[in-house]
UniProtKB/TrEMBL annotation:
The active site is at D46. SUPFAM superfamilies: Pseudouridine synthase (SSF55120). The gene is truB. Belongs to the pseudouridine synthase TruB family. Type 1 subfamily. CDD domains: PseudoU_synth_EcTruB (cd02573). It comes from the Bacteria. It comes from Gluconobacter wancherniae NBRC 103581. This is tRNA pseudouridine synthase B.
Length: 319
């Protein structure tokens, strides 16, 4: 019988991603180091970006969509005077300007870029255009015209001005916001051009830098493991359900939990713990729990409580 590929490992590793490798590079490297059967990440960081990269193993991969949709926080440095093909320092210079905005000018343009806005993604992005990645078309000398996309930017703060050529910002945003586009748009709104020269993610959903480990803090060399600790993990993992801590908890009995796990529905009026009326709207999610253990997520559809995404299956109940 062929050996299964990798171990069944469940949980989150929050990586402080270094500059250079892609997010996929780091997932592959850590999957190998942990000898994990299944792994993924909760939100891409560009090679020239560092910071919080949540990496999910096993059951935790089921919660990746909720991390992708979660609020994120970034710090970036905007360098004025040059626009680049990639909207960061990796690209070729497109245009130059001698104009440098004052602090007051910068602050005056930020409100118009905050809230629910339409944002043009960078040409060098992973978006598909006619079945091809935008960055592949751009590298082939055929940069696509990308239409504006809805984006939610909660706040933009000018943190400091190290000099006339640079400005440091802190941004909190929702899903799918491109910081490179935001930096480009801030410069254009100030009647100049610019690009991101430094980008760091400091928060992703419930995870921030206090949870993060650097590559040097993770035992990536499997050859260094001895026979005695061959099953030890290269680093401790956070519980797979940690990604769901911001979702309200709903206590259920074992019988109710079994019903949800098996894909059947419940009448909200007969639950052991009554649900507030607001929670019965279609978009409202609950974290179904038996004691301190998270079974998964549920919601009300057609007047019935149903599983939205379960982390456990019937084996949890010994069935």
């Amino acid at each position: 019988m062929a050996r299964k590929r990798g171990r069944d490992i469940d949980g989150w590793l929050i990586l402080d991603k270094p500059l250079g490798p892609t997010s996929t590079d780091m997932v592959n490297k850590l999957r190998w180091a942990f000898d994990a059967k299944k792994a993924g990440h909760g939100g891409t960081l560009d090679p020239l970006a560092s910071g919080v990269l949540p990496i999910a193993f096993g059951k935790a991969t089921r919660t990746i969509p909720y991390i992708m949709d979660a609020t994120k926080r970034y710090e970036f440095t905007l360098s004025f005077g040059e626009s680049r093909t990639t909207d960061d320092r990796e690209g070729e210079v497109l245009a130059t300007s001698d104009s440098r905005p004052t602090d007051e000018q910068i602050r005056s343009v930020l409100p118009a870029l905050t809230g629910n806005v339409m944002q043009v993604p960078p040409v060098f992005s992973a978006l598909r255009v006619g079945g091809q990645r935008a960055y592949d078309l751009a590298r082939a000398g055929k940069p696509p015209e990308l239409p504006p996309r809805p984006a939610r930017i909660d706040s933009i703060s000018l943190v400091s001005r190290p000099d006339a050529d640079t400005a440091l910002f802190e941004v909190q945003s929702g899903k799918g916001v491109y910081m490179r586009s935001l930096a480009r748009d801030i410069a254009l709104a100030c009647a100049t051009v610019g690009h991101i020269s430094v980008l760091r993610r400091t928060k992703c959903g419930p995870f921030d830098l206090s949870h993060a480990m650097t590559v040097d803090e993770i035992a990536l060399d499997k050859q260094a493991q001895t026979v005695d600790n061959a099953n030890a993990l290269p680093a401790p993992l956070l519980d797979a359900a940690t990604a769901l801590v911001d979702i309200p908890a709903l206590a259920v009995t074992e019988a109710e939990g079994r019903t949800l796990v098996w894909g059947q529905s419940l009448d909200p009026a007969t639950l052991s713990h009554p649900m507030p009326a607001v929670s019965q709207e279609d978009d409202f999610l609950w974290r179904a729990m038996i004691g301190e253990h998270v079974l998964g997520l549920c919601h009300v559809r057609d007047g019935r409580l149903r599983a939205a995404r379960m982390m456990e299956n019937h084996e949890f109940f010994g069935e």
